[in-house]
Structure formats: C-alpha cells, structure tokens
C-alpha cells in the first residue's frame, strides 16, 4: 500500500515542535538510541521533560517522528529535481545530488533514518512498534520509487544503461545514504563545499549508470 507523502510529516498536536525533534535527533545521533533518554532531550532543549512528554509518550514514539521528519525533508529536497528538464539520466543525477545535499544539511535527522532501518531489521520491538516501523519502511520504499521511475524513463530514452533498475537504484541510494555514517561537516564548511562533495559523489555513481556515447 502506497503512503502519501503527507504521512511522512511528524505529529504536531496543532502547533508543532520542531525544537523537540531537532534536540532528539542530535541526541540519537551523538549517543545512539539506546543510550539517549527523554531527560537528555529535555536538557538539550533547556526545558523540563514534561514538555517532551506533552507530545510524546515514549522515547520510541519520539524516535519515530524524528525518522518521519528526516524522510519529509528528503522528499522535499528531491521532488523539485524530478521536474527539471532533461533526459532521465540528467534528472536522476539532479535527484541524487539534491538527496546528497539533504543528507549533509540534515545530518542528525538522516542519521536517525539510517538507525531506523537497523531497528526494523533487528525487530527487537513491540508489535505496535513493528507496525510503525513497517509504515516507515513503506515511506522509504515510496521515496526509492521516485528514483526508479526516473531511471526507467532514462532507460527508455537511451540516456541510461541499466540492466536492473531496482538493484542500480538501491546501490546508488545506498552510497548516498552512507553519508550519514562517514560525513561530518568541517570547520568553516560552506554550502559551496557541500555542493562540490555532492557533485563528486553523484558523478561517481552516474559514471556506472549512464549510457556510453
């Protein structure tokens, strides 16, 4: 079942509280899910843990909404690139580049997205939590489907040479998502620096996918 992109939006209880999500994402990134607590999130906020509990009943619920917010940012970054002019190969490169920039500029959130995959694989959760993780994985699959659709168009217009689109896109996205593991911003790093890095990463991926002329 396909989940609409609106489902990626975190619960906001009418007013929203991105500050809580940001503080939680930073805690989960720096300490890991199991070592982080609601107290840690509250301390980072400079607030009482009652403020966090007003929105979230548990650390796991908070983790899930950080994951949703990370995916929402990914969708927002990639969708405009899909509509740019050019062949399937050109648009796929734009999408991967925008995704790489989103990974770097939303690093704490995207690290939680990666952690969420591991939680799903391990399955060490309650049935209700597994259902939520399954929903989040469906959202991730929908995100992957955006890239597959453009890749198929590239195969049809001759700009891409891909024997198996599904495997190729999983490999390309895996390389970009791995940014969450190895990338850390350097002191004084600028947007231009990140764009150069994104370009290098995507050029490496596209060199194996583009049709030879």
UniProtKB/TrEMBL annotation:
<keyword id="KW-0804">Transcription</keyword>
<keyword id="KW-0805">Transcription regulation</keyword>
<dbReference type="Pfam" id="PF00440">
    <property type="entry name" value="TetR_N"/>
</dbReference>
<dbReference type="InterPro" id="IPR001647">
    <property type="entry name" value="HTH_TetR"/>
</dbReference>
<dbReference type="InterPro" id="IPR041490">
    <property type="entry name" value="KstR2_TetR_C"/>
</dbReference>
<dbReference type="GO" id="GO:0000976">
    <property type="term" value="F:transcription cis-regulatory region binding"/>
</dbReference>
<dbReference type="InterPro" id="IPR036271">
    <property type="entry name" value="Tet_transcr_reg_TetR-rel_C_sf"/>
</dbReference>
<dbReference type="InterPro" id="IPR050109">
    <property type="entry name" value="HTH-type_TetR-like_transc_reg"/>
</dbReference>
<feature type="DNA-binding region" description="H-T-H motif">
    <location>
        <begin position="37"/>
        <end position="56"/>
    </location>
</feature>
<dbReference type="Pfam" id="PF17932">
    <property type="entry name" value="TetR_C_24"/>
</dbReference>
<dbReference type="InterPro" id="IPR009057">
    <property type="entry name" value="Homeodomain-like_sf"/>
</dbReference>
<protein>
    <submittedName>
        <fullName>TetR/AcrR family transcriptional regulator</fullName>
    </submittedName>
</protein>
<dbReference type="GO" id="GO:0003700">
    <property type="term" value="F:DNA-binding transcription factor activity"/>
</dbReference>
<feature type="domain" description="HTH tetR-type">
    <location>
        <begin position="14"/>
        <end position="74"/>
    </location>
</feature>
<keyword id="KW-0238">DNA-binding</keyword>
């Amino acid at each position: 079942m396909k989940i609409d992109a609106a489902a990626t939006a975190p619960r906001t209880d009418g007013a929203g509280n991105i500050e809580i999500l940001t503080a939680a994402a930073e805690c989960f990134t720096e300490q890991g899910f199991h070592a982080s607590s609601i107290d840690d999130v509250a301390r980072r906020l400079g607030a009482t843990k009652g403020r966090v509990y007003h929105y979230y009943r548990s650390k796991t619920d908070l983790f899930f909404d950080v994951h949703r917010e990370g995916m929402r940012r990914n969708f927002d970054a990639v969708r405009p690139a899909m509509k740019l002019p050019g062949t399937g190969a050109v648009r796929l490169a734009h999408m991967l580049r925008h995704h790489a920039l989103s990974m770097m500029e939303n690093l704490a959130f995207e690290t939680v997205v990666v952690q969420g995959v591991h939680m799903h694989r391990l399955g060490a959760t309650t049935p209700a939590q597994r259902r939520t993780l399954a929903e989040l994985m469906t959202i991730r699959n929908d995100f992957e489907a955006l890239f597959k659709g453009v890749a198929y168009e590239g195969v049809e217009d001759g700009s891409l040479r891909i024997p198996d689109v599904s495997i190729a896109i999983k490999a390309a996205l895996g390389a970009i998502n791995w940014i969450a593991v190895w990338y850390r911003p350097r002191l004084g790093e600028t947007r231009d620096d990140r764009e150069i890095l994104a370009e290098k990463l995507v050029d490496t991926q596209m060199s194996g996918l583009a049709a030879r002329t």
